[in-house]
Amino acid sequence: MSDLTPKEARLVFALLKMRASQISAALKLVTPFIEQEPGDKNAAMLGAARLGKVAKSEPEVKAIVTDRDKFVAFVQETAPTEVEHAPTVRTAYEMKLLETALKAGAPVDEHGQEIPGVEIGYGSSPRQNFYADDGAERLLGVVEEKDLPQIDGIDLAGLLGVRKDGSQ
After folding, report:
1. How far apart are CA 25 and CA 3, in angstroms?
2. Where residue 104 falls among pLDDT bands split at 50, 70, 90?
3. Secondary structure of residue 159 in the 3-state scheme
4. Where are the extended beta strands (E) located within 2-70?
5. Whether the model pTM is above 0.70
6. What is the distance between the alpha carbons of residues 110 and 162, in angstroms, rounded to a whole number?
7. How would you class 73 by CB atoms within 10 Å of its CB: exposed for 0-12, middle for 13-18, buried for 19 or more?
8. Which of 16, 59, 84, 93 is 20 to 30 A distant from 167 in Cα terms?
9. Which 8-state DSSP code applies to residue 149?
10. Can you name the residues that pair with 89 across neighbouring β-strands?
């Protein structure tokens, strides 16, 4: 990488962030139209050329504390040395209990005793991912505006650097 001055670096950072912001807005607009269930993987095609796969992740199952007071009272009763004076549960012990509950598939400790204030639920929501095939980036060099769908409010050709005459 060439040496950038701080002024040049700020300019490049700002320009890239503006482009990233535009791309992020475009992704949010188009994602609901993909219509995939978690775990689905479908090909992304440009004419007859396959760019790769668009996939929707599975939701992440997590054990979470939903009632801090009940949880702390439980730990204070069953493992008082793990409760700090605030009263709060040491983070490492909380993670251990939550991991145990997640493995059990229910809010219980290693002895099967229910852990009040804990539920098994979902953490992050499923999200769309893209896995490019080898050489897919080279296809961007031949994309023409006519190959792209028209989307209200998004200059897709401009975001991708595709000129109206087909050159880049």
Report:
1. 32
2. very high
3. helix
4. 41-46, 49-56, 61-65
5. no
6. 58
7. middle
8. 16
9. P
10. 83
Alpha-carbon distance values, 50 to 43, 134, 155, 166 (Å): 7, 10, 23, 20
Mean residue pLDDT across the chain: 85
CA distance 43 to 49: 10
Residue 109 near residue 100 (C-beta atoms within 8 A): yes
- ∠ Cα 90 93 99 (to 5°): 140
The 10 Å CB-count burial string (b at 16+, else e) for 115-126 is: bbbbebeeeeeb
d(CA 98, CA 109): 8
Which amino acid would we find at residue 102?
A: L
pLDDT tens figures, 113-135: 999 999 998 877 778 888 888 88
Nearest-angstrom CA–CA distance, 165 and 162:
8
